Amino acid sequence: MDSAAQKHAASLTAIFDHISAVGARAGEGVTRLAASAEDGAARAIFADWMARGGARLAHDAVGNQFACFDWAGENAAWIFAGSHLDTQPRGGRFDGTLGVLAAGCAALDLHTEVQADRFRPRHNLAVVNWTNEEGARYQPSLTGSGVFSGALPLREALSLTDGAGITLSDALAAIGIDGETGGVPPRPKAYVELHVEQGRILTVAGRRIGVVEGTWAARKMMVRWIGRAAHTGPTPMADRRDALLAAAQGVAAFEALIAARHPHLHRSAARLVIEPNSPNVVVERATVWFELRGLDVAELDRAGQPVLAAFEKAAAETGTRLEIIADTLREPAGMDIGLMAITGEAARACGFEPLPLRSVAGHDAVALQNSGVPSALIFVPSVDGIAHHPEELTHPEDVEAGLAVLTTVLRRLAEGDFDAER
Amino acid sequence: MDSAAQKHAASLTAIFDHISAVGARAGEGVTRLAASAEDGAARAIFADWMARGGARLAHDAVGNQFACFDWAGENAAWIFAGSHLDTQPRGGRFDGTLGVLAAGCAALDLHTEVQADRFRPRHNLAVVNWTNEEGARYQPSLTGSGVFSGALPLREALSLTDGAGITLSDALAAIGIDGETGGVPPRPKAYVELHVEQGRILTVAGRRIGVVEGTWAARKMMVRWIGRAAHTGPTPMADRRDALLAAAQGVAAFEALIAARHPHLHRSAARLVIEPNSPNVVVERATVWFELRGLDVAELDRAGQPVLAAFEKAAAETGTRLEIIADTLREPAGMDIGLMAITGEAARACGFEPLPLRSVAGHDAVALQNSGVPSALIFVPSVDGIAHHPEELTHPEDVEAGLAVLTTVLRRLAEGDFDAER
C-alpha cells in the first residue's frame, strides 16, 4: 500500500472509531436505531466531517443525507456511493457504517486531487447515508433508499410507526429533520456500496473482495393471531382464546415444515409483539414477523402454502383468528453487469482477485438497482460470518482493501468511464 | 334494602366511578399499573376520600396504604379490610378496586355510628390498599401483602424491576412514596376482602355471595432460552441458535403435554420477553412466564417433570441454553374456618344464601392467611366470568349485596366477636 492509501485508511479508522462510539455500550455492541437521538448524533458527526472536507450537505424529506461534491457543475450527472449509519439493537460497528465512511474517505481523497487539479471528473459525486436500512425500528427495511428509488411512497414511509407508536415523521423531526433541505441531487448514473459480507464465503475462498452478482429473494410475512384477554387463573381452559399459544404453534410449525421440505431456504421468526404482556392475562394479540429467503421465487411461493395452512390450523386449535397483515416478496436482484466488470477490474488493479457471489440479505444497493439505477455492491470479509451481533468484525487489512477498491471504482465512474449494461 | 344501605351503595358508586376514570381509555378498560402515575392518582383520590371521612392515613415502605380508624385506642387490636387499586394493562374496573372502596364505604358507615355513639367497637379498623397485587408490572404478584405478611423481604420487593428496568423503589418514589410514614398499624387480628369471583360458579349456582374456603395451588416458572444474535438472512441455518424458536417449541409443548395428561389443570404462558426484538436479528434471549394451577401440589410436581424435559429438548434442538430462572410453588390456602362461619352468617342475615367455593387465583387475603393472619375472602359474581379484560362487570345489585355483607362482617369483627380457629 502506498503512503496516500495508508493516510486514507488511518483517516477512515479515526472517523470510524468516532462514530462507532455513538450508541455503544460495553459488551452490547452499538444500538443506533433509525431516527433515534443516537442516529441524530452520528448524522451530525458525518455531516460535520464531510463539510470540513469541502462537501455541501443536503437531506431529503425521508432523511437521506447527501454529502455533495459538485465537481462538474449543475448539468453533470451524479455518481452516488454510501450505505447507512443506523444499526440493529445491540448490533455491530461495521454493518452500513463502513460503507458510508469508506465512501466519505474515498470522496475526500478524490476531492483533494480535484482541488490540486490532478483529477478532472466529468460527473459529480455524493456520499449518501440512507435512512432506516435496517428495518429494526421501522418496517419495511430499506426505507430511505426505497423512497429515493420510488419503490416506497414518501407519505407511506413517513407514517410508519415504531413499537412505541412514534411515526418516522415525528422521529425525524425530533432529530431536526423536517422536510427536504433543497439541493438534493437527482437520480444518479450509478451507485456503489461497500459492505461487510455477513457470511463466510470470502473467508472460505481466501478472498478479500467480493463482487455481488445478485441477491436472494425474500418473502416477508407479518402474521397476527387475535384471541381474547382473560385471567390466566380462574378462566376455564375451554373458554380461552390464547394468541400467544397460537403464535408459538405457528413459529414451531413454520420451522418444522420448512426444515423438512426446503432445508436450504433461510427462515426466521425474529420479532414478536404480544398484547397485553402480563403473566396473569391470556394474550389477546400476538404478531409475528416471519422471513423466508431463497434464490427461487417459485419455491418461496410453494413453501408458503403449507405454512399458511399451519397458521390457520393454529388459529382453529386455539379459537383465535388469523390475520395475514403483510405477505410481500422481494424479488431476487441481479446487479449491474457493467459495474460488476468495473469493480472486478478495480479489485485486480488493487491486487485482489475478486470473487463473484450472491447476497442473501437486502442492501440499499439492491433497492437502487431494482429501481433502475445501475448499482454495484462490494463485499469485504466478516470474521466467522458474524452479523447483527456485538462481535461483528472485519479485519483492518480487509477494510483497507475495500477502501482501495471503492476509491478506484469511484475514480473511474467520476471520470465518466461507464455505460450501464443491464 | 333500608335507606342507610341505599345511601352507602350510592356513595360507593360515586367514588367507584371517580377512581375508575383514572387510567381508563375508551374500549381499552383501565390501565393502572402498580406505582405508575395513574396508580398515584388513584391512591390520592382514595386517601383524600378517607381523610375527609375521618380516617388517619399512613403507608408503609412498600407503599401499602392504610386508612386508619383509631376507634378503640392505641392498645386495641386491629381489623383490616381492603384489596388493591392497581390493575392489569387494559384490565377491568372491578378487580381489586371494588374491595378497597367497599371496605372504605363500610368503614365510613361504621365510623358515622361510632361518632353518634351508636356503635362502640373494641377494635380499630384499617382500610388497606395493597401494592402491586396484580404482578403485571412487577413479578411476583401480591407484592405489598407479601411484604406486610413477611413472606417477601422488603429489600427484595423494593429492588424488583419492571420491563423498562425501573425498580419498584424508584417507581414508588416517583409517586411520592419514599419510606414508611409512621403510624402504620400492626399485624391485624383479622383481614376481610371483598372481590369479584372472576369465574362463573356463583352465576351457575344462582348465588350472590361466595365464601371462599381456600385456593388452588399455583406453580409459576420463569424460563429463559439463551441463543446468539445473528443476521436472519446470510447466517447459515446450521449456525443459528434461535431463542425464540426454542421458546415457541417450549410454549407449544407445555400446552400439549398438560392438555394430554392433566387436562383439568389450568395453565398458561402469558408473558414473553425477547431480546433483541427486530425482524432481522435471530433472537438471543427469550424469557417466558409459565403458570400451572391445580388443587393438588403433588400433581403440579408430577406434571412439571415432562414439561422440564420438553424445555430441555427445545434447547437441545435449537442449540440454545436453558435457564430455569424461577420455579415457585404457591401452596393451596385454606381460609380461616371461624371467619368463614361469620361471613356465612352475615350473608344470611343480609338475605343471601352463601356458596362455599374455591378461588383459582391468588388474592391478598391468601397472602395474609398463609402468614397466619386469619382472613376471609368474599366473592360476588362476575358476568360471564370475564376477568382481566375491559368487559369485566359485576351488576350493581351484586355490588350492593357484597357491600352489605362486608359491612355486617366488619361490624361483628370490630365488636370483638371473633376468635381465630384454624
Summarize the structure.
Chain A is of the alpha/beta class. Chain A has twelve helices and twelve strands.
Question: Could you list some keywords that capture this structure?
Answer:
Alpha-Beta Plaits; 12 helices; homodimer; alpha/beta; globular; Aminopeptidase; 8-stranded mixed β-sheet; 422 residues; 37% helix
Task: Summarize the structure in words.
The structure is a homodimer of 422-residue chains. Chain A is an alpha/beta fold and 422 residues long. Chain A has two domains: 297 residues, Aminopeptidase (3-Layer(aba) Sandwich); 114 residues, Alpha-Beta Plaits (2-Layer Sandwich). Chain A has twelve helices and twelve strands. In chain A, the strands form two sheets. Chain A has an eight-stranded mixed beta sheet with strand order 1-2-4-3-5-12-6-11, sandwiched between helices. Chain A has a four-stranded antiparallel beta sheet with strand order 8-9-7-10, covered by helices on one side. Chain A is globular and about 80 Å long. The mean pLDDT of chain A is 95. Chains A and B meet through α8, β8 and β9 of A and α8, β8 and β9 of B.
Tell me the name of the CATH homologous superfamily of the largest domain in chain A: Zn peptidases
Strand pairing plus helix content of chain A: what structural class?
alpha/beta
Q: Find the CATH topology of the largest domain in chain A.
A: Aminopeptidase
Distance between the termini of chain A: 34 Å
Encode the helix/strand succession of chain A as letters.
HHEEEHEHHHEHEEHEEHEHEHEH
The helicity of chain A comes to 25-40%
How many structural domains of chain A? Answer: 2
Q: Can you tell me the overall shape of chain A?
A: globular
The averaged pLDDT of chain A comes out at 95
Number of strands of chain A: 12
Provide the CATH architecture of the largest domain in chain A.
3-Layer(aba) Sandwich
| Main pleated sheet of chain A | 8 strands, mixed
**CATH class descriptor name of the largest domain in chain A:** Alpha Beta
Provide a count of the helices of chain A: 12
Radius of gyration over C-alpha positions of chain A, nearest whole angstrom: 23 Å
Strand percentage of chain A lies at 15-25%
In terms of quaternary structure, the protein is homodimer
